[in-house]
Amino acid sequence: MSGTQHAEPAVGTPPASGPQQADGRTARRPLALRLLARPEVGVFLGAVAVYVFFLITAPPVREGSAMANVLYQSSTIGIMALPVALLMIGGEFDLSSGVAVITSALTASMLSYQLTMNVWVGVVVALMVSLGIGFLNGWMVVKTGLPSFLITLGTFLILQGVNLAVTKLVTTNVATDDISDMDGFGQARKVFASSFHIGDVQVKITIVYWLVFAALATWVLLRTRYGNWVFAVGGNKESARAVGVPVTFTKISLFMLVGFGAWFVGMHQLFTFNTVQSGEGVGQELIYISAAVIGGCLLTGGAGSAIGPVFGAFMFGMVQQGIVYAGWNPDWFKAFLGVMLLGAVLINLWVSRTATRR
Amino acid sequence: MDSSSPSRSRSIAPVVAMAAAVALTLAGCSSSSGGKKSEESADGASAGKASTPQMTVALVTHQSPGDTFWDIVRKGAEAAAAKDNVKLIYSADPNAGNQANLIQNAIDQKVDGIAVTLAKPDALKDVIAKAKSSKIPVVGLNSGVSEWKNLGLMEFFGQDETVAGEALGNRLNTEGAKKAVCVIQEQGNIGLTQRCDGVKKTFKGTTEVLNVNGTDMPSVKSTITAKLSQDKAIDYVVTLGAPFALTSVQSVADAGSKAKIATFDLNKDLTGAISKGTIQFAVDQQPYLQGYLAIDSLWLYKNNGNYMGGGEQPVLTGPAFVDKSNVEAVAAYAAKGTR
């Protein structure tokens, strides 16, 4: 509700009058309106609305530790939602991203355990594997021209099967062995899964990575040539190619970026929980994609931002944990999640429509 | 197609290079602790081999892929098959319709016996009747303790989930717990719901149910953390699977809660946690025994006409409590993945 109050005075402001607007129309519109027209502002207001809602209905949310927990949940979604969003801006999407996280964690864990090597060896090989999966996805999409939906649906199923079958073959169980007593584990845990204190609130390091990656992605999108390429290939591949944008490189690198994200989140899971169950990760890809869509990335490509998915992921984390903090009947969990998210998307849509109306 | 080969060799090159690098640095990077080298090579249970003619048995479960629990069931079935000179055909599908198709497949193969789980009994009713009319003996295991007789199964091996829940509830009473949260990792699974209902029935304190998304561990972790900080009165976390118990250890620490943890089902990491005292106890339904007995019973029936449980009563494999007092005896088997 508080979100709409912000919006109203802006809408009420009369736009600057006609004749002066003949050229540079958008540049002359009031700042507030121009701001609202940006895709991430709608989701920002939606996130604020959800936050305020739970601040009122769920008293524990007012504590710092609860916010740290909500942000942790958001960060494990958000770190993956970022490259997934960039990929969507580039006009493709990736259904294999959820199980790819587990593939990466399984690779690192089994390789170091079975060969009794320092876990960093596993971590590096897992990075290679994850980037390789991204490369293959991208390469197949570019070379065949088939929709990425089909290609990555294929790799999703392949990875799901390989995760299970290879784990079973190698460990004779369907979960990996505990690697927490191996060399390098302590260091790797510090890098991927440590936490620090702000006052007496324990903050997980993934939150920091999440925000740093988001800032980095924003800079790349808005300030670099590569960022322009991403928007160009998502907007219109052929005209982008005509003006000299390396379409193949851009698309493949975006898929590899998703691979990098999968590796990073996979390492976080491995070094947080010591073991990995091979059946996990299924369904997560839709959550990443949802966070990106709620964050203002179009399913058709060519539009979006890196900061939008940050708020998208925050909304997921906030709603998921907020229901629990509020102590509501958990049977309604998923339904409530859906209603809140639909509501947020509608606020998002309404704000951007109001803002762009002239 | 022409362009595919050079590109593919480019994509493989870094992988090959990496593999070579790994091989070269293998000595330098080896871990001095843990890992495969420290794992004891232990053989599974073995009791020689029957000289009876080979028979074929199908085991059809509702396992979803990559679940540690079902792996143990399968290992038990494989051990019995090896001992009884049985050719075991294992198949599984969590979707009841697909499971029925797999049973039909076994009937078409003219197997000598079928063992099935009855997670959704109604969907399997017809195909089980078909197996009976084809004169194939069918036994049940794991789920369906209240339905197996109605469906005309010969024998049943498993745990009554409600009874197991009740046993855990009673145990919570003796531990002096006041408020428990029962964590369900798969919403809508009847066996899991029955466990929590059983706990609710006998536990004198308050029992609350918490649904979590079992395929996403970080979210399981933060959801339990959230519940514990929302309700400081919770002094026992009850999980329905070993991996979730281990995750809730971290949630308890993150929430700064004093809650203790109990769980259904075991695995090897969990036995370690029980001996360290981070998890209080586990209710073990002995999945290995379920798989083993299901196959062995079909062999006994074919070769000696026996019925376990007299064909009237289910053979219960649980609840067996594993706590600090007996965990050492169980740990060695859990390490092999058979408990």
TrEMBL record, chain A:
Protein origin, superkingdom: Bacteria
- Keywords, in A-Z order: Cell inner membrane, Cell membrane, Membrane, Sugar transport, Transmembrane, Transmembrane helix, Transport
Where does this polypeptide localize?
A: Cell membrane
Q: InterPro entries annotated for this entry?
A: ABC_transp_permease
- Pfam families per UniProt: BPD_transp_2 (PF02653)
The residue ranges crossing the membrane are 41-58, 70-89, 120-140, 146-166, 205-222, 242-265, 286-312, 332-351
Region (Disordered) spans which residues?
1-24
Nucleus is among the record's keywords: no
- Describe its membrane topology: Multi-pass membrane protein
Q: What does this protein do?
A: Part of the binding-protein-dependent transport system for D-xylose. Probably responsible for the translocation of the substrate across the membrane.
Q: What is this protein called?
A: Xylose transport system permease protein XylH
Tell me the organism's taxonomic lineage.
Bacteria, Bacillati, Actinomycetota, Actinomycetes, Kitasatosporales
From TrEMBL, chain B:
NADP is among the record's keywords: no
Highest taxon of the lineage: Bacteria
InterPro entries in alphabetical order:
Bact_Solute-Bind_Prot2 (IPR050555), Peripla_BP_I (IPR028082), SBP_2_dom (IPR025997)
| Keywords of the record | Sugar transport, Transport
Region (Disordered), start-end ranges: 29-52
Q: Where is the Periplasmic binding protein domain?
A: 58-301
* Annotated localization: Cell envelope
PANTHER family per the UniProt record, alphabetical = ABC TRANSPORTER PERIPLASMIC-BINDING PROTEIN YPHF, D-XYLOSE-BINDING PERIPLASMIC PROTEIN
Family affiliation: Belongs to the bacterial solute-binding protein 2 family.
What is this protein called in UniProt? Simple sugar transport system substrate-binding protein
